[in-house]
Amino acid sequence: MPRCERKKAEDAIYHVIVKSITEVPLFKEHDDKMQYLSQMRYYQKIYGFKVYAYCLMTNHGHFIIDSNGADISKIMHGLNFKYAITFNRIHKRNGHLFQDRFKSKIVSSDSYLITLSAYIHNNPLSIRGYENCPEKYKYSSLKVYLGIEKDDTGLLDEAFIMQIFNNDVKKARENYVKFVYICDGERIKKELEFEDEKTEYRSEKKIIVRNFEPEQISKFLAKETGINEMMLYVKNNKNAKIIRALATLLMRSLCNYRCSDICKVLGNITQSRVSSLCSIGVEIISTEEKYKNIINKFISLQPA
């Protein structure tokens, strides 16, 4: 039977669910959960999407993701593929880990959004020891919402939902915790089933356009790095590696290019090399202050 086409929109917010195959837990231990969040952060640096809430359970995970103009399928395919390889290597296994494709449903309204966040944050209620205190569960964003812990992952933008409850942080937390505790889990679950896809949730936020050309990126990077554009096509050179890595990162993020497309732009290199260059690019913007905001700077300099 052919797969149904996934409903997507460039300014959509999604409820995303990932599940493992029946016989294998998706997260066997603490390190697995942290690995998944870390790898999600890696892809967040590439695609610039936002995470508004999450909860990782043993065999599945829930997320509220604002794609911010990126393709949700590219984000989740890359993330799940990378995690499955890591998981199989660490746990010395082969074969599939995830149950079919990830599930995604477009969030249709503010009321749907906050109800969904409560449902996600109430997931730990089914775990022994957390029946009355979901905020103590380590692998959920609820603890950040309530100010119990800081977001060490760097993933979360909890303010987007919390401002719906109140602009004052303290009042918002008080209102949100009441809302979470009064939500009926079974009733909410029925409302949030993956049936009858809704229209997309649209806000006034600015969406990142993803239709830039490689030539725009190469000219910008040449100016920013002081490295000649022609070095993009030079291999085994330290300066060339910097501009090639940043160019690969920006093309994946802003040109809507696949790895195979970038291979051709950079002179018929392999897809594994493109992946490696992208990782180097992420490392550069994560560790070098000069390039920390280079993606946003490129966007800001483009004509409206």
Automatic annotation (TrEMBL):
Positions in coiled-coil regions: none
Recorded superkingdom: Bacteria
All residue ranges annotated as the Transposase IS200-like domain in the record: 9-123
InterPro entries for the chain: Transposase_17 (IPR002686), Transposase_17_sf (IPR036515), Trp_repressor/repl_initiator (IPR010921)
A GO BP annotation: DNA transposition
A Pfam cross-reference name: Y1_Tnp
Molecular function GO labels: sequence-specific DNA binding; transposase activity
Name of this chain's protein: Transposase IS200 like protein
Protein's organism: Clostridium liquoris
